[in-house]
Write a structure and sequence with these properties.
Organism: Saccharopolyspora flava
CATH architecture: Alpha-Beta Complex
Protein name: DUF6194 domain-containing protein
InterPro entries: DUF6194 (IPR045676)
Order of helices and strands: HEEEEHEEH
Strand order of the largest sheet: 1-2-3-4-6-5
Pfam families: DUF6194 (PF19694)
Domain DUF6194: 1-148
Number of strands: 6
Helix content: 10-25%
Strand content: 15-25%
Length: 149
């Protein structure tokens, strides 16, 4: 399954709102080319909710350890909660991250900045992680739906 297929799967979730900033829009240039996913069946970005998943396509200030400025790299970030974070990584999200290669593709690791809040990341989901990525994205969407309810 390609990254495009994962993206199409997420876009088909009931009540999903995808923000995908582009040049000339209302969002700052740093966000162009990235994707932000919310549960918002009314089509309005929730005022008190962060996205439940993002796709980041470049390094951001203070977030450059994943080497996303290289061509054809994107980091999927998914809010999974602390319990699932521990299940997936074997680490406590509130502890200091274990030494690992944050540039590796097709593996799950704690988000470089938001691990303590229960976020995991996958750079270029592939054969090893595509099914897991879909499952985590679906659960993150459902969790966001339940918070809204």
């Amino acid at each position: 399954m390609s990254v495009q297929q994962i993206l199409e799967t997420v876009r088909a979730f009931d009540g999903v709102l995808e923000l995908a900033p582009t040049e000339g829009g209302e969002f700052p240039e740093i966000a162009w080319g990235d994707h932000f996913f919310y549960y918002a069946p009314d089509g309005v970005v929730p005022q008190r909710e962060q996205p439940y998943a993002t796709i980041i396509t470049k390094n951001y200030p203070g977030d450059d350890r994943c080497d996303l400025d290289k061509p054809d790299r994107q980091r999927w970030n998914i809010h999974v909660g602390r319990a699932m974070f521990t299940e997936l990584t074997g680490e406590d999200p509130r502890s200091e991250a274990a030494e690992r290669d944050l540039t590796a593709t097709d593996v799950v690791f704690g988000h470089p900045l938001y691990r303590a809040q229960g976020w995991v990341s996958i750079i270029n989901p592939g054969v090893r992680t595509h099914a897991l990525a879909i499952r985590l994205l679906r659960q993150a969407h459902e969790d966001a739906r339940q918070r809204r309810a």
